[in-house]
Specification:
Blueprint: H1 3-14, H2 16-19, H3 31-53, H4 56-60, H5 70-90, E1 92-110, E2 113-128, E3 135-151, E4 154-162, H6 198-207, H7 234-244, E5 255-256, E6 261-262, H8 264-267, H9 269-279, E7 282-288, H10 290-294, E8 313-318, E9 321-331, E10 337-341, E11 345-350, E12 360-366, H11 372-377
Antiparallel strand pairs: 1-2, 2-3, 3-4, 3-11, 5-6, 7-12, 8-9, 8-12, 9-10, 10-11
């Protein structure tokens, strides 16, 4: 069974109510559970520090010696390979990562074996090279099902089942960057008053989940269903933000409060793409791989990606299918768009982090309704 399949089955087995980020307060941990949580927190911090440093020896020390942990170690090595390649391609250096975690479920399988469901929150800092001109920070929130084993008085990670936001098949992103000397604007002009998309952006920042920087105590909006473990919650989250930004529900794009389910256009990336295309509520102004969207053109002197405005959407396409949706919420020190998403949770993350040279991006200008006061003023 694959790691992703196992995690989906695990989520379904425990039930959405127990695992949703918006779940009620958890039962206090026993002393034995607290000791396991402390050990796991140390392991994850060491793992992330070793990945950031590119230190394979330190990374291997986190995992149980032997063949049983090889799949989990392999995932960590792939994560290191992607981050190393992405950072080099983007001309940045990841300078630090801070880790915290919640443990809604700890179960002892034997005296020296424990299964831990953990929500891991990672706060990264980075700077542009050379010289460090331009710094930034972003947050990731990832749900893990860990199997821990204790040998010689020390806990190790034996298995780690999760949906990795940095786990791509090719792992190596495109190395294309804007041409030397290209103007990299930090302000993105908009044909509508800049406050029109504010409500959508504020909603996204409040309810983006377990990523450091998100509001609401790191929890989703409990009024809506949580599709983690059931195909992913990314588009459900984006639709909530669009509604907060003033979009009215329609026959095709709606949320059924009685059933606790969204329509296909509401909760499915391909469904939302089709709806935006038909409804006129957004304009698809650019499509292509990273290299094409960052290349200066007559229409987009700094590249099409830098024409994205706050509140605009990016739909990510893999193998010809729309698989993910993000909302632009800010820009970093060099003017690169930053996104919030669910599954995995992202807060102000560079728009292409976690994707590779095979990914195609659909860039949408969103036509948010003008507030009544803005309509009267105009």
């Amino acid at each position: 069974m694959s790691q992703r399949t196992f995690l989906s089955a695990f989520l379904a087995l425990l039930g959405a109510a127990a695992l949703a980020p918006a779940a009620a307060a958890f039962t206090p941990l026993t002393p034995e559970e607290r000791a396991v949580k402390t050990a796991l927190t140390d392991l994850v911090r060491r793992e992330d520090a070793a990945i950031l440093a590119g230190d394979g020896r330190r990374l291997r020390s986190v995992f149980l010696p032997g063949k049983a942990s090889l799949p989990a170690l392999g995932e960590a090595l792939q994560r290191r390979a992607f981050l190393t390649a992405w950072s080099a391609a983007r001309g940045i250096e990841l300078t630090s990562v801070a880790v915290s975690l919640r443990t809604p479920h700890i179960a002892f399988r034997a005296r020296d074996r424990a299964q831990v469901y953990a929500v891991v929150s990672e706060a990264y800092r980075y700077r542009y090279l050379p010289g460090g001109e331009g710094e930034g920070a972003f947050g990731l929130g990832v749900r893990h099902d860990y199997l821990l084993a204790r040998e010689g008085g020390r806990w190790y990670i034996r298995a780690d089942y999760f949906t990795d936001p940095l786990d791509q098949d090719t792992r190596i992103p495109s190395s294309a960057q804007p041409a030397a000397g290209a103007t990299l604007p930090t302000a993105h002009p908009s044909p509508v008053p800049p406050h029109v998309a504010n409500a959508a952006v504020q909603y996204a920042d409040r309810y983006c989940g377990a990523a450091p920087g998100c509001g609401n105590g790191g929890l989703y909006n409990s009024r809506y269903n949580n599709y983690n473990g059931d195909g992913g919650d990314c588009t459900n989250f984006i639709s909530q933000a669009l509604k907060a930004g003033g979009f009215r529900e329609s026959g095709a794009w709606s949320y059924d409060w009685r059933l606790g389910e969204g329509s296909r256009a509401w909760s499915n990336a391909e469904g939302l793409r089709d709806y935006l295309d038909r409804s006129g509520r957004a304009e698809l102004f650019a499509i292509g791989p990273y290299a094409a969207l960052t290349r200066p053109t007559a229409r987009f002197p700094a590249g099409a990606a830098r024409a994205l405005r706050e509140g605009d959407l990016i739909i990510y396409v893999e193998g010809g299918a729309a698989v993910h949706t993000g909302i632009v919420v800010a820009y970093d020190a060099r003017g690169a768009p930053l996104v919030d998403t669910h599954t995995s949770d992202r807060y102000h993350v560079p728009w292409d982090l976690g994707w590779d040279r095979t990914t195609r991006y659909l860039l949408w200008h969103v036509a948010y309704p003008l507030p009544r006061e803005a309509t009267r003023a105009n």
